[in-house]
């Protein structure tokens, strides 16, 4: 059996490695038109911003190493021009010599990745405009900075790569402006979580321009559709990627409207003996099975390994993804998985939404930092639909636990029973994951109803707000129209309240608010607890 793989970054090399581990007899050939293979695409922003990170760290494996290690042919600088599915041949061009030749396959794997989306911006082909996709593109940015000593830059797009690059350019002493056409940073997050990130970036002195579209890039400036002119020596376009599926669609492989190749759980396309893996392929949601395009190296590696196993008769099958992502900007970690609240509502779910603000460890440690957790659950099934977390420490740990719970179909009432690792340097006695489950369980299965800041603001006249914090906190800042009844006085003072009204209680972050809610409920009041307390309210209403 002869396996031909087109593409040799995360997915393609994973196919080859797993196929060889399973089978010593098969013949394996990889064609790669680039000069680098199996590189760390996720590390490119750090390569640019940290002189201590050498190029060899991003490209630890050469073609010769792979050929020797896995007994295969890996031909870099070779582009596959066309595929004949009927006689299982392909035409390949040696980009170094210009020679074209024909090869054949028994099994063909398309791992052609994705390319940066190129928006219709005047001047986008200028010498001071860059896209960050492979090691060579990072080299170009490094070389430009070294040769021109730029003082100012504009990053177009406030997604993962754009914000990671922001930090690394700032580390080089370059003043950066980030322009995002959506109304929020990280459009993959709900607005009520993106505001935490935006607030953090603003405090860091970042010039973040939202809801603006770049229309022109000049030699020393960038212009927007509303007439803003931003000084910039160079620009980096980080507006997402598009699957490189032209080869695949050219032979009748089914693709989605965004160009991603349609595959099944064996990574097979609709064409016999043709597979697709990595950024060129569409995944699907573990939650509801709908198509999901989240091009990440982790998914590409997973797809590649599964495909290599399938081709050589193995049992592995691709089960889908949650779309989990995490990145760091300065000291802030931002993570998300599954659906946002907006996406869940669009799909018709009856959702329960909570905001949980908790420290990553016992508060008396200097490294203790608060994290904000937003969880979206399905009231009907009791399962999580999505989670978003922001914080400086411990974010990845909690997100990984949530992902494991969602992947196994756990319901929110099971979270509290997790036997998680606890000691004061690592967590709190009830971990933030457990607390999230407790809040959701009380809201879905119990009587402790949660009200979001958005719901309160949209229906403010319907609720009497009771601030149960100490008077000193209330006097410093409070929700307009709220009355102050500290928790210690609530039992007696509640007797003076009208039971025909709806009440919302809150403390600073939610825990004391929950205690106050229980008092009110036990006294016969219709009472909600404000999600995330006053702290969440103050962030949501800052602008």
TrEMBL record:
Names of required cofactors: FAD
Keywords for this protein: FAD, Flavoprotein, Oxidoreductase, Redox-active center
PROSITE patterns according to UniProt: RHODANESE_1 (PS00380), RHODANESE_3 (PS50206)
UniProt key word Methyltransferase: no
Domain Rhodanese: 463-542
GO MF term (any one): oxidoreductase activity
SUPFAM superfamilies: FAD/NAD(P)-binding domain, FAD/NAD-linked reductases, dimerisation (C-terminal) domain, Rhodanese/Cell cycle control phosphatase
Gene3D superfamilies: FAD/NAD(P)-binding domain, Rhodanese-like domain
Top-level taxon of origin: Bacteria
Family: Belongs to the class-III pyridine nucleotide-disulfide oxidoreductase family.
Protein name: FAD-dependent pyridine nucleotide-disulfide oxidoreductase
